[in-house]
């Protein structure tokens, strides 16, 4: 991580100064440049490509357990946690379909409604003679109120 930062900013700042500030040795940085990616990183890159293929084939609906099962069928060796970690790193997620839920129901119990005193006659002669409001239903933990 630190060596990647040094590599990215080597044109702007001196390597010696960046190594000192980040608390790493210069020879460690040059070893990093010479060695290249580790065996594990190369292996992870191959697994990521397979994960992307499986995820695309599932039209984005498979999460890590199903992706892992598919990888296992294909003979790719990795654990479910590793597949999940790589999916998280690459921001690969399963699309979750929301289940359809009926939200409005006709009440089974008979409720007394208030009488309509105004009867659509909105022309009133005096202020504060008639007050009106609208009813809004709100979903709460108790149900619709």
Describe this structure in words.
With 145 residues, the chain is an all-alpha fold. It has a domain at 2-35. Helix content is 44%, strand content 3%. The protein is built from six helices and two strands. It has helices at residues 2-8, 15-22, 26-35, 39-57, 64-73, 80-89, and strands spanning 139-140, 143-144. The chain has a two-stranded antiparallel sheet with strand order 1-2. Helix 5 (64-73) crosses helix 6. The model has no long low-confidence stretch (mean pLDDT 85).
Instruction: Report the portion of residues in β strands.
Output: under 5%
Overall 3D shape = elongated
Distance between the termini: 54 Å
Strand line-up in the sheet with most strands: 1-2
Helix/strand order, N-terminal first: HHHHHHEE
Mean pLDDT: 85
Structural class: mainly alpha
Q: Which spans of ≥5 residues are poorly predicted at pLDDT below 50?
A: none
Radius of gyration equals 32 Å
* Helix count, DSSP H or I runs of 4 or more residues: 6
State the helical fraction. 40-55%
The description of the largest β-sheet is: 2 strands, antiparallel
Put the structure in a nutshell:
Helices cover 44% and strands 3% of the residues.
